[in-house]
Amino acid sequence: METTNIVGFARQDEMTDALTDLLRTGAQQLIATAVEAEFAGYLAQFADLRTETGE
């Protein structure tokens, strides 16, 4: 028989604290910045290309 001191919480998804919120917000901002930079780089690759009508 294994003994452990881990206690499960019934509603883990509803529990938040200031540090978790700060980390989550920071991670979301970091991901958004990375996606925007990646997209800007992708658009820059094709910035000089035009369609047959010159658009």
Q: Specify the biggest β-sheet.
A: none
Low-confidence stretches: none
Mean pLDDT: 87
Shape descriptor reads rod-shaped
Strand content: under 5%
Describe this structure as you would to a colleague.
There is one protein chain. This protein is mostly helical. It contains one helix and no strands. The longest helix has 28 residues.
Core attributes:
55 residues, mainly alpha, 1 helix, rod-shaped
Please describe the topology of this protein:
Elements: H1 18-45
In brief:
The chain is mainly α and 55 residues long.
